[in-house]
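Subject: for your reference before the review

Hello V.,

The reviewers asked for a structural picture of the protein, and I figured it would be easier to keep everything in one thread rather than splitting it across files. Below is the amino acid sequence we used in the manuscript, unchanged from the supplementary table.
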Amino acid sequence: MPRPSEVYDLLLDHAAARHGPVREVMLGLTWTLCRDDDGMGLAMSPSLATGIETRSLPWSGTLVGRPLSELAGWLNSWQPFEATDGMAAGNAAINPAPSLVQGAVPLAAGHPPAGEFPAGLNSAARAARTVRPGPHGTGARRETRSRRPAE
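And here is what came back from the structure prediction:
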């Protein structure tokens, strides 16, 4: 029977040969990205629901320029933010970035910018309602009106 950590070992093996510098690390509320010259990887960022509420990380701003293999080594860390960066680095080792860029398709002329509705839907969006969960554990919900601009 395979060991549960075997997938981590395989990622670390792939990353061990990657000594090129990390070019970009972004730790977001939902996703963490790690990119070097040859690959790009994502990992799910730790949630505040885990009880880890800090964003003051001692290594903040020091990851770019380090070897990808070094960051991938954090995969086995017990510190959730380090482990997330390690997973993103390991994923970058197995995910070639050019395939993502080459697969991108430019938006057609006249296509609305990201975050906007196509023409004619703004009036429908004004009447839309969003249901958001209330305070943690209460089950209460609140309803808000959309704040889309008028056409």
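For the response letter, the relevant points are probably these. The mean pLDDT is 76. Residues 108-151 form one domain.

Happy to draft the paragraph if you're swamped.

O.
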